[in-house]
C-alpha cells in the first residue's frame, strides 16, 4: 500500500488535541520534527481554538455528539466519519448555527459557545457550509460583499481574495450559479476568508467535485494554510484533501471521537485510506 504524502504536508502546522482519559482531558502537544514557518503575519502563539467536552444536536433534547475535545493552534485538523457520524452537526455547533448543549469552545482563551453565528464570525470563526450555499443570483463580487458586510469588515479584503483566487477576480461580474462546482467552492471559501477569520470550519468542501477540482482545491487551501493566517477544521471524507492539508485527523463515530490519526505517520496515513476510506 503506497503512502499518500501531501505536498509540504504539516509544514508550519502544530496541533495539540485534548482527549478525555480516565483522569480527564489529556493534552498531546506537537509533532516530532515539525517545521515552523519563519514568516507569520498574525500572531498565533496563543492557542487558537480549544474545544472542551463539547456536546450538541439538532434538537437540544437529543444530543448528536458529545465529549468532543481538541485543540488547534495552526494548520488544519480533519474530522472523518461515516455518513451520519455527526460531522455537520459539529461544524454547525462550532460556527454557532446550532446551540451548544454542553462544554466549551474557546477562541484565544475566550469562551464563544454562547455567541450567535454573527458574533462568532466577528470573534473569528467562519463556516464554509456543506453544499457551498452561495447566492446563485448574485455576482461573485456581490457574494463577497455580502460576506464582508455581515462580518463588519472592509471591502479591501475582497481585492486580497481576488488576488488569492484569481479566477474569482476574472469572474467577478458573473453570477454565482454560472460558476463550475470547483469555482463555487472557491467562492464559498473566499466568502469565509474575507471575514478575516482566525479559524475556518469547512464542511465537506470536496462534495460533488471532480478529482481534478479536488486537486485544485487542495492546492488552493494549502496555499492559504501556508500563509499562516488561519487555522482550519476540515470535515471531510476525501483522503487526498485530508492528507494534503491536515496534520491530524480525528475519527468520529456515532457522535464520539474514537481516535486520532497523525498524518505525519505513514502508518496512520495507510490506516486512513485502508480503514476509513475503503481504499
Ligand atoms: N436537521 C436534522 N434534524 C434532526 N436530526 C438530523 C438532522 N440532520 C441530520 N440529523 C441526524 O443527525 C445525525 C448526524 O447527522 P450529520 O449530518 O451531522 O452527520 P454527518 O457526519 O455530517 O453525515 P453526512 O456526511 O451524511 O453529512 C444523523 O443521525 C442524522 O440522521
Automatic annotation (TrEMBL):
<comment type="similarity">
    <text>Belongs to the ABC transporter superfamily.</text>
</comment>
<keyword id="KW-0029">Amino-acid transport</keyword>
<feature type="region of interest" description="Disordered">
    <location>
        <begin position="1"/>
        <end position="32"/>
    </location>
</feature>
<dbReference type="Pfam" id="PF00005">
    <property type="entry name" value="ABC_tran"/>
</dbReference>
<dbReference type="InterPro" id="IPR027417">
    <property type="entry name" value="P-loop_NTPase"/>
</dbReference>
<dbReference type="InterPro" id="IPR003593">
    <property type="entry name" value="AAA+_ATPase"/>
</dbReference>
<dbReference type="GO" id="GO:0015807">
    <property type="term" value="P:L-amino acid transport"/>
</dbReference>
<protein>
    <submittedName>
        <fullName>ABC transporter ATP-binding protein</fullName>
    </submittedName>
</protein>
<dbReference type="InterPro" id="IPR052156">
    <property type="entry name" value="BCAA_Transport_ATP-bd_LivF"/>
</dbReference>
<keyword id="KW-0813">Transport</keyword>
<dbReference type="GO" id="GO:0015658">
    <property type="term" value="F:branched-chain amino acid transmembrane transporter activity"/>
</dbReference>
<dbReference type="GO" id="GO:0016887">
    <property type="term" value="F:ATP hydrolysis activity"/>
</dbReference>
<dbReference type="GO" id="GO:0005524">
    <property type="term" value="F:ATP binding"/>
</dbReference>
<dbReference type="InterPro" id="IPR003439">
    <property type="entry name" value="ABC_transporter-like_ATP-bd"/>
</dbReference>
<keyword id="KW-0547">Nucleotide-binding</keyword>
<keyword id="KW-0067">ATP-binding</keyword>
<feature type="domain" description="ABC transporter">
    <location>
        <begin position="49"/>
        <end position="279"/>
    </location>
</feature>
<dbReference type="InterPro" id="IPR017871">
    <property type="entry name" value="ABC_transporter-like_CS"/>
</dbReference>
